[in-house]
Every structure is written in structure tokens, then in C-alpha cells.
Amino acid sequence: MSKEHHYDVLVIGSGAAGLTLALQIAPHARVAVLSKGALTAGSTYLAQGGIAAVYDEEDSLEAHLADTVTAGNHLCRPEAVRYTVEHGRSCIDWLLSQGVPFTREPNGKLHLTQEGGHSHRRIVHAADATGKAVSETLIEQAQRHPNITLRTQAIAIDLITRRKLRLSDNRCVGAYVLDQRSGHVETLLAPCVVLATGGASKAYLYTSNTDGASGDGIAMAWRAGCRVANMEFNQFHPTCLYHPQAKSFLISEAVRGEGGRLLLPDGTRFMPRFDARAELAPRDVVARAIDHEMKRLGCDCLYLDISHKPAEFVRSHFPTIYGKCLEFGIDITRDPIPVVPAAHYTCGGVVTDNRGRTDIPGLYAVGETAFTGLHGANRLASNSLLECIVYASAAAEDIRAQLDTAPPLPKAPFWDESQVTDSDEDVVLAHNWDELRRFMWDYVGIVRTKKRLQRALNRVRLLQQEISDYYSNYKVSKDLVELRNLEVVAELIIRSAMLRKESRGLHYTLNYPQPLPEERDTILTPVNYDWPR
């Protein structure tokens, strides 16, 4: 039987952005936080490198701003970059107040490391498992708070808006949510709804992400009527561990930041041929160089080597990476690490302002789900967790200011399961999953062409009809919800890529290899398209 629950704020997603917002708003409101798996299932928990913030005396806000804009190929929105950079230290201070155990120097100061694209050491970190430390700390704090309800195994299907309810003015008022334990869909209503569902890297065959990253928030916002922007900029992390038994394990940017060298199978360095910054070049440059060399040589992987550093240095700086590689028989103090690029981060997303507000009143988007303008055409390493904390804090402040004046919640119909049946053809889902991720990897990957993009568009249109038919006739499941969202996001990526007649940052096309003189964002509006939403 369908159930209805009321909250002051509904947060969809339990990563750094969602939990930060929940904790900052909880003293003033009743908050529900949804996670479609375990609370640690998202991308935050997997983040290794750290959080960029200016602490070093030789560093400056202007230098961090300049590095961000340079990495973003000058497509970043200046006001977003400045706002984020200026709030870096206050965000670290807030995380410290929550108990995040960042690594410190013997003198007690925060230890800072350097990563590709940064001109100074400004990465605050917890060894090489920063995301784990942040995630576990925020989860522990949220579990203690009496005003926060944590719901696991709960996946949002679609947003509920007043327009969908055929009411006069529009506002987001909740979501339909599948409780995976009971198998039934519940109605969760709240005057403020926050999308913190991460990005869409699961649209690709090889990805550094695991349970999350299926574009849920982006697809739901698009179906509800929100604009999305810059979906063509998909960051491929240059160095994912290549091993048949290693699933989605990243080799942190910090390995290169501390002197790791990228090598061909014969042991030759190659990055100096592609960029003067060599291994410290931004991720888009390094990923394209690795992709180029792998295709040129016809090899399955390349290598990242830090064995020239003292063994104790390697083990102390990268204990997680050292331990994981050792499980697969790779001793990184002596052996080079086999690596390949993998889809890692979505630089575009739901268009928001500097308070996390979307086009629909009452609906917010924070973290990787959102397009704030910070990342431009390529995200600078360790700016992602920073953006999560900065904009979640801003959104929490905005929500606090309007809680008392939010309109009353309308009546919403229960989810109707009477016309659908249990699926006896799950093989269709598995096949469509595989096909979508393969053609996205082959045709909409690191290097693109007009012909490849058109092929991908043709394929996604066929899949959309199959998935729509399936969705109309069978009970929803986690796999079906994610696949339905990914086919929407895949088309958003393809159409955005087709509209950009240049190469810039993460979007590289052989048909237009040079950047245009004018920087512009790619903004898509739902009313401009009549394909299934």
C-alpha cells in the first residue's frame, strides 16, 4: 500500500552535498535524507585526493581562481569561481568542527599536497581517503541528529510539482520514492526539495563510480522543466586501476602530484611531449594523451610509476592505494601501476544560481548534480568536494530564510501500481544497459566526431522507445529507474556535444579541433524538445 510522509526539507542524495545541507538546516527543520543504497554508496565515499583551499602563505585566492579558470578553459563563470574559492577555508573549518580527521603536519598545521592543474600545494586531505573520512564523519553526525531521518534503499523516481498536479502556480512539493525493501512506491512531500544525487558517469562503459552517478537528479529536474547546461563536458579521470578484478578503483591525482610518472609499456615517459606541465597537466590533457598513446600502440593500458620515491614515503602518503594494489599483486613501492582513463565527473548539470536554486521554486540542486559555472569545460582537481560544501551551505541558508513563508503542501495522488505487473523480461533491461553504456563509450567518449555523435543519437532514440514501453507496463525497480534516467541524460550529453562546434576542455572533436574565440555555455531548455521526458 502507498504511504505518504511529510517533511520540511527532502534531500535526495547522501553524499557530501546532501549531508552538509541536512546538518546545517536540521536545527531549524525536519529533514529526510534519501540514499538509494547504503549511506556510503555515492561518489563522496570513494574520493581520494582532497579539498582545495588556500592555506599556504605563498598561495593566494587569486592563484586558486586563476588555476580554476585555466583548467576550465576559460569557460568558468567568474562569480561562481570567486564565491567558491573565497569560502574554501570556512568550509574546511566547518568540516573540522564536525570532526573530519584531516592529515596534519608534526607542528599541527594541516598537511597540504599538490595535484594536477594547481600552482601551489593547497589540497587539504585525510591521507588518500579524504572522501571516506568526510562521508563517515557527516553520516555519524546526521545519525545523531533528532531532526534528520535517514532513509536507505530508497530511490526517487520523479519529482512532484504543482504544475504536474494541474495547480495554478508551479513549485516542487516532493517526490515519488521507491522503497526497495517493500517494493512499493511512497509519496514524500516537502516545501523544499534538494537534488544531491551526483553526476552521470554511469552512462559510460568504464567509470570510476559505483552505485551512484546514474544522472537521477539531472533527469528528474529535466522532466520537471528545469534547464541543464554543459552536459558535453564529461571528465575522464586519467588513471583508473587496470586489473580484471579491480572494479572502479581510482589512482589519485595526488600520486602524480607527489612525483608519479606516466610511462609507456616500454618504460618511456610521454607526457612531456603533450604538455609542458607533463604529469601535472589538467585531467583533460592527461586523459587525451593516455587515450592517444593507447590507440597508437594498440595496448590495453599504460603505467603510473612512483617506485622511484622512498618506500616509506609511498606507503605513508598513499596507504589506501598501496593496500588495494597489493591485493592484486602490485607493490607500488617497486612496480608501476597499470592504468586506463575512466568516466569520472559530470561538469554540467541542472542550472542553479549561487544559492542552489533551480528554475522551479522550492527545488534546489547541489554538488555534482548542479551546474554552478565553477568548472567550465574541465574541473580542476579537488574543487568538487569544495563545491559540495560551499553550495550546500549557501542553499541551507536560503532554505532557512523561506521555511516560515513556504506555502502549504497540496494533496498529491498516490502512485498507481494497479495497471502494471512484475517483469518477466529483466534480460531486456540488462541488454539496454549494456548497449547504452557501450555506444556512449565508443561514440561520445574522450574523442568525438559528428558521425559518431549522430550514430549515438540514433541509438538512444531507439532505446528510449523500448525503455518507455517497459516503464509503462512493469513495476519500477532500481535498475529500471536508473536506466530510464540514463537514457535521458545520454541524449542531453549527445545533443550538447552536437551543439558545440569547437574543441574545448573535455569536449574534443576531430571535426572542430580548435576552440572558438568566444566562450559560451551550452544551455538546453525542456520546452525546446519534444522527445520523451
Break the fold down into its secondary structure elements and pairings.
Elements: E1 4-6, E2 9-12, H1 16-25, E3 31-34, E4 51-52, H2 61-71, H3 78-86, H4 88-98, E5 112-113, E6 123-124, H5 130-144, E7 148-151, E8 154-161, E9 172-179, E10 184-189, E11 192-195, H6 216-224, E12 228-229, E13 234-241, H7 253-257, E14 261-263, H8 283-297, E15 302-305, H9 311-317, H10 319-327, E16 337-346, E17 349-351, E18 363-365, E19 370-371, H11 384-402, H12 426-443, H13 450-473, H14 478-499, E20 523-524
Parallel strand pairs: 1-10, 2-3, 2-11, 3-7, 11-18, 17-19
Antiparallel strand pairs: 4-6, 5-6, 8-9, 9-10, 12-17, 12-20, 13-16, 14-15, 15-16
Taking the alpha carbons of the first and last residues, their distance comes to: 27 Å
CATH architecture of the largest domain: 3-Layer(bba) Sandwich
CATH domain topology of the largest domain: FAD/NAD(P)-binding domain
What is the CATH class of the largest domain? Alpha Beta
For the residues shown, what is the average pLDDT? Answer: 92
Q: Gyration radius, to the nearest Å?
A: 22 Å
Helix content: 25-40%
Identify the CATH homologous superfamily of the largest domain. FAD/NAD(P)-binding domain
Strand pairing plus helix content: what structural class?
A: alpha/beta
Shape from CA axes?
globular
User: How many structural domains are formed by the residues?
Assistant: 3
Sheet with the most strands, sense and barrel status: 5 strands, parallel
